[in-house]
Design brief:
The protein has helices spanning 14-27, 51-54, 97-113, 138-149, 183-199, 223-226, 229-240, 244-247; strands at 6-7, 84-92, 118-119, 124-126, 131-134, 155-167, 172-181, 212-219, 249-252, 254-259, 262-267. It is of the alpha+beta class.
Amino acid sequence: MSAAPLVGYSSSGSEDEDEAEAAAGALARPGAGGCRRSQSPLPSQRLPVPDSVLHMFLDTEGEPEDDQEKHGGRVRTFPHERGNWATHVYVPYETREDFLDLLDMLLAHAQTCVPRLVRMEAFHVSLSQSVVLRHHWIIPFVQALKDRLASFQRFFFTANRVKIYTNQEKTRTFVGLEVTSGHPQFLDLVSEVDRVMEEFDLTTFYQDPSFHVSLAWCVGDARLPLEGRCLRELQNIVDEFEDPEMVLRAHAEQVRCKSGNKFFSMPLK
């Protein structure tokens, strides 16, 4: 394990198929009736089936192909296969204007150390690694999560310690804020999420996890320029910001599961 903590980052039915087979059969038989006795039979000839018919029933359950250029050069941590859905469980982190002001200050300084850093589009605290679900497992998986988390209470937490993270392959680096209060509640949530992962024979979360909110990221291993002096300066920005404890205090009200392009919400009590 690296010095930096790791980040876990259909066809329409048989009736339509019958219609397609009929259409294909009609195309393969030119002419409505047989030839006259006085005429020589025409040689058997198979006409090509139009592309529109050939592609009517392609599998639509798989995720769209990944275009690396559309995702800032990020490298997939597992190979894409049709019907496999990248799945992630997390607590969303709702932002306020003062948090975004602090984020702007942090990102501006971090970019003096690593110019290629970019701001995250959304913010959350992970409760799972990114795992692969088959399409037909998604609904049973989400239902199992709902059953496990049904009795959990909402809670407040604070994330105010700047920390540098990498993913397991060290192909991405993140600047994050580590959770400093609310850690036991997150451990309890992870314990239940891990049980669901085990039911579906999926990878559980990291041992001794560092719960955090990722603020910015870049491709590659950028720990060296970000740790040390840069990290201390980033922490000073947080500590000297007006009322940082209140700015960085958040309310965990729900757990979400993202599977491919589908989102599922599980409100806490």
